[in-house]
């Protein structure tokens, strides 16, 4: 008799809203294993620059954490369970294994969206998912949060670090709204201070920086380890709506987007084409992967679509 085991439904997640929710970011923990697969964190990196070649395949104990449904029962920590009265499981990581550092862009240009969520909310969920992906594999995790809520999350146990990142993302900003945003290369320099050689870097941004800043940032990060660029865009950035006047607001200020003139439409098209071309070029280089996620779409479908490199459809 053949026993049919149903396949698990593919994960589905569409970010929504204009502000990230701490509860939602923490709840994404259950997608950690799926995100790990989507980012190919267990695959050997393609050669790039000074990426560390020798990596141990041994396993070492990292910590014990509360048991969650789906955890490997063979890693049940009986001692901690007996001491605390609550089920715990052991977490192991590769000796000298893959550290993952996420640079998450929450600067002004990210606070925009016409489909379901702001780009900043999509980026927040992608960064949290990356942290939970590191936790699922017992890797260490750190993060650099850019924007009004600047924060540096030191490299450490992924479980603790991603929780700290989620909290930092959702903490109200106290900075002056008129302060200029730091350029991407300056943010990359900050991220490098927290990372050892061989660290995998993941940058979540709309990459709206000028070419020199963008190029320097990529060069800096790629000299340390493999690099993944998650490009977050809104469909309006790809294609302007039909000629007309469209009101826009951030809840306080109001402005009018006038797409009726050919000059405006042409300038917008050129700027977006330049961003697309430079990311597409990077997607073909060793040690770098580029993936695209649009506001209003399922995160896992988007990552699966562009898993082989940047694909604009």
Would you give an account of this structure?
The protein has helices spanning 22-27, 32-38, 78-84, 119-136, 158-170, 184-193, 211-222, 235-238, 262-283, 299-305, and strands spanning 59-66, 88-94, 100-106, 140-147, 151-157, 200-205, 227-233, 245-249, 254-258, 288-294. The strands form three sheets. It has a six-stranded mixed sheet with strand order 5-4-3-6-7-10, sandwiched between helices. A two-stranded antiparallel ribbon has the order 1-2. The protein has a two-stranded antiparallel ribbon with strand order 8-9. It is built from ten helices and ten strands. The longest helix is centred in the C-terminal third of the chain and has 22 residues, at 262-283. The chain has 313 residues and is α/β, with parallel strands linked by helices.
Write out key terms for the chains shown:
single chain; 313 residues; alpha/beta; six-stranded mixed beta sheet; two-stranded antiparallel ribbon; 34% helix
């Amino acid at each position: 008799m053949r026993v049919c085991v149903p396949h698990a439904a593919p994960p589905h997640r569409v970010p929504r809203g204009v502000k990230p929710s701490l509860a939602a970011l923490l709840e994404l923990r259950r997608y950690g294993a799926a995100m790990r697969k989507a980012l190919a964190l267990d695959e050997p990196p393609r050669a790039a620059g000074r990426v560390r070649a020798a990596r141990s395949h041994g396993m070492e104990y990292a910590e014990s954490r509360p048991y969650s449904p789906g955890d490997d029962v063979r890693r049940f920590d009986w001692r901690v369970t007996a001491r605390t009265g609550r089920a715990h499981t052991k977490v192991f990581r590769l000796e000298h294994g893959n550290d993952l550092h996420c640079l998450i862009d929450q600067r002004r240009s990210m606070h925009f969206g016409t489909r379901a969520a702001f780009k900043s909310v999509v980026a927040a969920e992608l960064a949290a998912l990356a942290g939970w992906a590191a936790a699922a594999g017992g890797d260490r995790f750190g993060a650099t949060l850019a924007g009004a809520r600047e924060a540096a999350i030191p490299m450490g146990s992924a479980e603790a670090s991603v929780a700290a990142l989620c909290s930092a993302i959702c903490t109200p900003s106290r900075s002056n709204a008129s302060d200029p945003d730091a350029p991407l290369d300056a943010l990359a320099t900050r991220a490098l201070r927290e990372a050892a050689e061989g660290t995998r870097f993941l940058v979540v941004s709309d990459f709206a920086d000028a070419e020199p800043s963008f190029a320097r940032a990529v060069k800096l990060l790629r000299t340390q380890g493999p690099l993944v660029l998650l490009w977050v865009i809104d469909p309006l950035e790809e294609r302007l709506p039909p000629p007309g006047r469209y009101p826009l607001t951030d809840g306080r200020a109001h402005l009018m987007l006038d797409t009726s003139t050919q000059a405006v439409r042409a300038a917008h098209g050129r700027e977006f084409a330049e961003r697309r071309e430079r990311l597409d070029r990077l997607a073909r280089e060793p040690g770098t992967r580029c993936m695209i996620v649009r506001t209003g779409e399922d995160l896992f479908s988007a990552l699966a679509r562009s898993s082989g490199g940047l694909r604009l459809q």
